[in-house]
Amino acid sequence: SQQGEEDPQALSIQEGENATMNCSYKTSINNLQWYRQNSGRGLVHLILIRSNEREKHSGRLRVTLDTSKKSSSLLITASRAADTASYFCATGGSQGNLIFGKGTKLSVKP
Amino acid sequence: EAGVTQSPTHLIKTRGQQATLRCSPISGHTSVYWYQQALGLGLQFLLWYDEGEERNRGNFPPRFSGRQFPNYSSELNVNALELEDSALYLCASSLASGSLSSYNEQFFGPGTRLTVL
To answer: Are A70 and A25 a contacting pair, CB within 8 Å?
Structure first.
């Protein structure tokens, strides 16, 4: 079952622009994680934000979490062509697993 | 520090055969998770192993099974392969989970692409 739903499904921007992706989820969470996947390869862990945090930064990444709205956003500033990938949010499932959304496909044009 | 490794990178089998996929976690991680990423279906949880025990499994038939070895590496076996088993199989590892809260970050390997003909 899908817990997170990313929005938009696809995003195309120019290099240097900012990219914002949103994620909504259904149940209460302990944390929310964002991952990147390049062309059907493995997932790269980007950032984890705990339920008692509202914002977290890592390099050019900024993640916000609004537990009252059950939503999170990932902002990539000054995007580069190398940021082209699919981005997924994931929340903890009741079975010890992660439940992933369907992802946002980001295309950054040089 | 070495990340999660998986082998083989690609695997081609025919219907009815068995497939064995392998995963080595990050050193110090005792939990291993398996996920299936089939086209159009997203990432689906398969199995979770911790300290050699199967802790939980997703909504998959019993022909999907596995085990975790004393060195925490893991094997996923898929018996009686069907065409719809064609997918990218991802393994992830994390530090021990004391509860089902999945509080720890999971780190993923590059995946094994299984093609069933």
So the answer is: yes
